[in-house]
Every structure is written in C-alpha cells, then in structure tokens.
Specification:
Elements (H helix, E strand, L loop, with lengths): L16 H7 L9 H9 L8 H5 L6 H9 L3 H11 L3 H7 L11 H6 L5 H14 L14 E5 L3 H12 L3 E6 L7 H4 L10 H9 L5 E5 L9 H7 L2 E4 L5 E2 L12 E3 H10 L11 E5 L3 H13 L3 E5 L11 H9 L3 E3 L2 E7 L6 E10 L2 E12 L2 E4 L3 E2 L9 E2 L2 E2 L12 E3 L11 H19 L2
Parallel strand pairs: 1-2, 1-4, 2-3, 4-17, 6-13, 7-8, 7-13, 8-9
Antiparallel strand pairs: 5-14, 10-11, 11-12, 15-16
C-alpha cells in the first residue's frame, strides 16, 4: 500500500506534483528590468533617508535605488554587498514591511512603500548571475581565525575577515554551510537552491576553508581553538528546542517545527513528505508561520496555530500573519497547551485560555481541545553548545557592541549572542561588525 493510500492521518502524496510545484514556487518572483525601473522611479532618494536608518546593515538604500534607476544594477549590487554580503538572501527573507519599507516616505504618505526588498533582489541577482565577485582579497596578514557556525553571522564574518587578508577556517556542524538560510526558512522564500549558490559565490573571495560535521562540544573545544588560532568567532545559533512543558508531549507525531522545516528544505521530493490531516502548530513567530503555511501547502486539511498571548505580541510580522490566514491557517490567540492526549500517538491537544496583565500571563481555567494527528512545537530555541568559560545571560552569550565575549580573543554574534532581533539581516550585521573589530585587534 502506498503512503497516499494509508489510513493513518499522517500520509504523503495528498497533493499532485504540479500543485506542489505551484504551492512552493517563489513567493515574490524577481522583477524584470522594466519593472525594476518603474519601481525605482518611485523613490524620492531622501537625504538622511529613514529606510537606511531602519536597515540593520545600514545599506545606502537611496544610492542603490538611484543606481538601478540610472541603469547600473551591478553598481547597485556592489553598494548593497559592501554592507551586506548576504544581500541576495536578505532581499528574499527580510521582513522589509517592518524595517526599511515601514518607514519609507511613500509608505507614510501614500500607504504604498517603494519595493525596496524586491529592488535589492533585482540588483543582487543581476550581479551574481554574471559570476563576478565584487570584492578582491587583500594581501595575506598571516593571521588565522576560526569561525564556528556557517550561518548568516558566520558567513558574514568569514567573508569580511578573508577580504581583509586573514585566513579563515569555517566550522559547521551540518553537512553543508548556510545555517538558517539553508535549513530554517520556508521553501517558498528561497527557491532553486539559492542558499547553496549564494554560499559558493561568497566563498569565491578566497582564504576561507570550510570544514563540515564539526561542532563545539564534539570535535571542537574553545580552549583548543584559542591555542591554534589568533581569534575565534562563535556563530553557533540556538541549537536546542524549548519544551512544551505539557503532559504527554512525548507522544508520537509531536515534533519541533525546526526539524520539520529542515526536512522539508532538504527534500528532493515534497510529494514523499508525510503530513497530517489535523495539524496544530504551537507558537507565534516566523518559524510557527513557516511550519503552518507549509503544512497547508503539503495537503493538511486543517492547520491551526495557537499562540499563548494576543496578536500584538506575536513575533511574526503582520505580513506573515496575513500570509498564513490567506493560505487557510486558523490562528487562535491567548491559549496555552496543557496536555497532549492519545494512545501512543497524539489524537488531541488540550489548551487553556489565558489572560495578560502586562508581562504576566495567567490561565483562566477554561479549557478546550483540538483534534490533532500532528503537532509542531515552535515555541523558541535555546543555546546548546556554548562553552562554560563564556559568560551567558538570558540564555545567550554576553557580548559587547562589537561582539567581544567575556573570554579574550573570542567574539560571538547572530542568534547565539545578546543583541538585536533574531533576524538574518541582524546576524549579517553582527558578523560583519565583529570581523572589523577582530581585524582591528589583530593588526593593532
């Protein structure tokens, strides 16, 4: 009996391949040249532009849009890459609606911002398609830096250090580099293997050696790295997943959303991925939305997101919330999981309604149950690999503004470190800025 004929609620093959191809096609297709010209023409090229201030990597947005408007998209791309070497991916996954586009003068005056994200993608794609790398490596300094973690922060740090002439060894626990960009975002946001192509393109700067299958606490120790290298940058992400702390959460088919998204992103055949009929996603962030929407696109009959607080407290952006509801995802607010019910495998999940008083959350005592043959936990991640010698506060490695940790010669950035929002673009900025501080320390 094929998977699609199984009587279990969790099966594969519900959706025809042609429909899957359409469901997982590019969410925001790239602009054609004439579309980019029209979109760029809407920019006022503001002096002291609020969009640039709102960008975590401080890209000169008016300049790159003007360069597109004057027919030089490759120059625009260099302007972008100078601040954000992962500008191609950020153009695809950044919540621009809550960053640069939210403060665009056109948005404030007319309710329709300049399409900054799509224009950034247009420019970066054009340059990357030429095969040219926009930067040349400086003369070697003879200094060696270990970067642990090949996600956005690690890649950004490694590239900037290599460009400045340092030799970098980039260690990654997975079988390939990319981190969140490769394993942790919805497939419809980054199609056609873009993450891998972007990594290959970035490595063309030279001076970076990638060693996969290696992680702190396993093959690597901070003491050994500190002895062998002139500096260490930790970009280890948040490898652990928070527990529901609800009775019965160890039942079959209750899994973390991160693992589900990772499996989906690495699948060569989406029609072979099993999905439930009644899917419940617990959480209110981007990961929860990605898991919920993709469950629906894979053929789940009913998908419900449940978040313990009100809509205004959700980490997911308004655009992401609207995307979920447009795809048929139901969202229940102010409810927290109490128990998972079922004989071996989950059959129902029980919730309690909540009330908020400032930051205090309390249960009301009023319960309800949802049918569920598959539950995805998307309630946040925790630091897993931080060495004991590094100071940690609030579940993250404590760092200075330039990424210095409590250990001399060790920097950190990205999701694992204290600092800004847990966004790809923020991680890129932190990796870049730490690289500049490492360079200053090594060449003082």
């Amino acid at each position: 009996m094929s998977n699609s004929q199984m009587t279990s609620g969790i099966v594969s093959g519900r959706v025809p391949q042609a429909t899957l191809d359409e469901n997982f096609s590019d969410l925001h297709p790239g602009l054609a040249a004439h579309e980019a010209a029209v979109a760029a023409d809407r920019c006022y090229f503001c002096y002291d532009a609020p969009c640039q201030t709102a960008c975590p990597t401080t890209i000169d947005i008016p300049l790159f849009i003007r360069q597109i408007a004057t027919g030089t998209p490759e120059a625009a791309a260099r302007t972008i890459f100078n601040q954000n070497i992962l500008g191609g991916m950020c153009a695809r996954v950044c919540p621009t609606e809550t960053l640069c586009e939210e403060v665009c003068v056109r948005e404030v005056a007319e309710g329709k911002p300049v399409e900054i994200g799509r224009l950034q993608r247009y420019a970066t794609d054009r340059l990357m398609e030429t095969g040219a790398h926009p930067f040349a490596r400086a003369a070697t300094t003879g200094k060696r830096v270990a970067v642990v973690g090949a996600g956005p922060a690690g890649l950004s740090c490694a590239h900037r250090l290599a460009m400045l002439g340092h030799d970098v060894v980039l260690f990654e626990r997975e079988a390939k580099a990319g981190g969140l960009n490769e394993f942790g975002i919805a497939a419809y946001k980054s199609t056609g293997g873009f993450s891998g192509r972007e990594v290959d393109w970035l490595l063309e700067i030279g001076g970076i050696t990638v060693e996969t299958g290696k992680s702190l606490g396993g093959d690597l120790s901070l003491d050994a790295l500190g002895s062998e290298y002139d500096a260490v940058f930790l970009a280890i992400g948040m490898g652990g997943v928070n527990a529901l702390r609800a009775a019965g959460e160890d039942k079959d088919n209750v899994v973390d959303a991160v693992s589900f998204i990772k499996e989906l992103r690495q699948s060569d055949d989406l029609s072979a991925l099993p999905i439930g009929r009644e899917v419940v996603v617990i959480g209110g962030g981007m990961t929860a939305v990605d898991a919920a929407v993709q469950s629906k696109l894979l053929g789940a009959q009913n998908v419900t997101m449940v978040y313990r607080r009100g809509k205004g407290r959700m980490a997911a952006s308004e655009f992401e919330i609207e995307l979920a509801t447009a795809k048929g995802v139901r969202i229940i607010y102010n409810a927290q999981p109490v128990a998972v019910h079922g004989n071996g495998a989950v059959a129902e999940i029980e919730f309690e309604y909540t009330v908020e008083d400032g930051n205090t959350l309390s249960g009301t005592g009023e319960m309800f149950r949802l049918p569920a043959d598959q539950v995805f936990k998307a309630i946040g991640q925790r630091l897993m690999d931080a060495p004991e010698s590094v100071a940690v506060a609030g579940g993250k490695i404590t760092v200075s503004e330039t990424g210095r940790t409590s250990v001399a010669g060790v920097w950190a950035g990205g999701d694992c470190a204290s600092g800004g929002d847990d966004l790809t673009v923020t991680a890129v900025a932190e990796g870049r800025d730490a690289a500049m501080d490492i360079h200053a320390a090594l060449t003082a």
